């Protein structure tokens, strides 16, 4: 696997047909690289293609069969889905928009301070991580974290790094070669149990803290505790719902923003057009806010192009089919892992002209959100970054709002300057977006940029 992805723009994805099957140990992997196949199978036949790969360590043991993202498409999942959808619905996100708005205000203040304090350059990853973590933390528990030295942030970072290390394919071999399950791997088993203990303590404490504040602001945990009073959930369910929200809702947003910032630094002409749009529509006396989204066409196009050109997930979250199926003469055997090759589709020349160029203009005229397009015909989709079918990203509305506030405000406040070492012609070397790092999502290699404030009002609007 890692072999395939050493380089972001490897050609392997194009070598595969629209639908391709490979054998991984005893697992059969069906790789979907054509947009039509994704529409036909994951969307139209969603009832069959919506399960998840059974995983002994990472579903059964780590989540005690209670994980949401890793759950099979069973009755329990169908009971949890409406609860998740309600918490993350467009209406719910709109109701929380002040809170999300204020986190992006703080993020811009942090960038402003950092860019005036740090003379040389900065790497924005940790700032984006803090903001996205703070948004989920505040939504869940109505609390927030001050900076990356906060013990809560440190604890979360340790548990995420532990998880990244654990899910390495070499730790999961018994899922591919079930015979290895006979030789139980005590070391991995003990680590999974320890990670579970840490997770359950971390989220358990968060639940206790909310319980102990009888008054206080509304938050997800409070809603979930009501479901517990009604006998619909128990406390361990809440722990694993929180695990899903923190796991799926932090790294994805922060790595998307880290990628888009790098793509913008490499493309000053794109920034220039965005600045023109912001000056014309917003002016210099206030930050863009959620209600400006319909009028900021170029910003919207940048975000869609960012998700296509450098989205943080390459092969989606694998789906799984539990019964045999036939498709255009192909036999798809029961118990196959079904992979949405997002990266392959996003680099498909038939779908996107010159796919290796960062060209927001390709999305001109598309006014619908990714959430709306993802539920329609595959041909009209902007990109496949949020997955497809019944397992489509549950947090898509929240993600879109975060990306909008992050990108529009960053560009309103700053010019993003590439601060890489100079090449022979005296210009900074372009940030190498082909080099990637793997975590829960895919990240660019560390890069160096400068944020230059765009006008005199920036300080006043951010701190005034
Ligand atoms: C730019 C940001 C994000 C991206 C690119 C993204 C992408 C994805 C993808 C590719 C999947 C798998 C879809 C499939 O199986 O076909 C997924 C699932 C999921 N996402 Fe997101 N996501 C983002 C943000 C969020 C946020 C902010 C949340 C919530 C706080 C969230 C919650 C979830 C959940 C709960 C699932 C599991 C859905 C299921 O298994 O039924 N995501 N996401």
Automatic annotation (TrEMBL):
Cofactor: heme
Pfam families according to UniProt: p450
Positions that bind heme: 393
Keywords tagged on the record: Heme, Iron, Metal-binding, Monooxygenase, Oxidoreductase
GO molecular function, one term: iron ion binding
Protein name: Cytochrome P450
Biological classification of the source: Eukaryota, Fungi, Fungi incertae sedis, Mucoromycota, Glomeromycotina
């Amino acid at each position: 696997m890692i072999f395939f992805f050493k380089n972001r723009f490897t050609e392997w994805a194009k070598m595969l047909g629209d639908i391709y099957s490979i054998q991984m140990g005893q697992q059969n992997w069906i790789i979907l690289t054509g947009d039509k196949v994704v529409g036909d199978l994951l969307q139209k036949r969603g009832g069959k293609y919506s399960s998840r790969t059974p995983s002994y360590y990472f579903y059964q043991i780590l989540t005690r069969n209670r994980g949401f993202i890793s759950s099979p498409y069973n009755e329990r999942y169908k009971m949890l889905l409406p609860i998740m959808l309600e918490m993350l619905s467009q209406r719910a996100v709109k109701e929380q928009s002040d809170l999300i708005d204020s986190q992006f205000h703080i993020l811009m203040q942090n960038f402003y301070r950092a860019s005036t304090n740090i003379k040389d350059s900065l790497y924005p990853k940790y700032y984006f991580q803090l903001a996205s973590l703070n948004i989920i933390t505040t939504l869940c528990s109505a609390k927030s974290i001050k900076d990356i030295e906060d013990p809560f942030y440190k604890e979360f970072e340790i548990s995420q790094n532990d998880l990244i290390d654990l899910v390495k394919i070499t730790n999961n071999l018994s899922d591919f070669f079930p015979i290895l399950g006979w030789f139980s791997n005590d070391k991995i088993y003990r680590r999974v149990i320890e990670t579970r203990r840490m997770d359950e303590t971390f989220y358990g404490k968060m639940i206790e803290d909310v319980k102990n504040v009888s008054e206080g602001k509304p938050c997800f945990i409070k809603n979930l505790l009501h479901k517990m009073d009604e006998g619909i959930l128990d406390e361990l369910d809440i722990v694993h719902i929180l695990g899903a929200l923190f796991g799926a809702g932090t790294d994805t947003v922060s790595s998307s923003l880290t990628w888009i910032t790098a793509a913008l630094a490499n493309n000053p002409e794109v920034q220039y057009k965005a600045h023109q749009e912001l000056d014309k529509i917003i002016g210099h006396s206030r930050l863009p806010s959620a209600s400006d989204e319909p009028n900021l066409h170029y910003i919207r196009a940048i975000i869609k192009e960012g998700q296509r050109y450098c989205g943080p997930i390459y092969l989606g979250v694998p789906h799984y089919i539990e019964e045999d199926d036939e498709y255009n003469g192909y036999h798809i055997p029961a118990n196959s892992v079904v992979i949405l090759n997002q990266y392959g589709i996003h680099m498909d020349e038939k779908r996107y002209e010159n796919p290796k160029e960062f060209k927001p203009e390709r999305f001109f005229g598309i006014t619908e959100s990714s959430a709306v397009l993802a539920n329609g015909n595959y041909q009209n989709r902007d990109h496949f970054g949020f997955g497809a079918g019944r397992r489509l990203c549950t947090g898509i509305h929240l993600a879109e709002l975060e990306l909008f506030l992050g990108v529009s405000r960053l560009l309103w406040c700053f010019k993003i300057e590439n601060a890489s070492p100079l090449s022979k012609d005296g210009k900074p070397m372009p940030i190498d977006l082909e080099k990637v790092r793997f975590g829960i999502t895919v990240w660019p290699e560390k890069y160096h940029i400068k944020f230059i404030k765009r006008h005199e009002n920036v300080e006043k609007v951010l701190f005034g």
